[in-house]
Amino acid sequence: MNEAALVLNEHDARGVVRLTLNRPMAFNALSEGMLDALQRELDAIAADETVRAVVIAAAGKAFCAGHDLKEMRAAPSLGYYERLFALCGRMMMSMQKLPAPVIARVHGIATAAGCQLVAMCDLAVAARDAKFAVSGINVGLFCSTPGVALSRNLQRKAAFEMLVTGDFISADEARAKGLVNRVVDADRLDAEVESLLAEIVTKPRASIALGKALFYRQLEVGIEAAYADAGQTMACNMMQPAALEGVQAFIDKRAPDWRV
Question: Is the overall model pTM greater than 0.70, yes or no?
Answer without folding.
Answer: yes
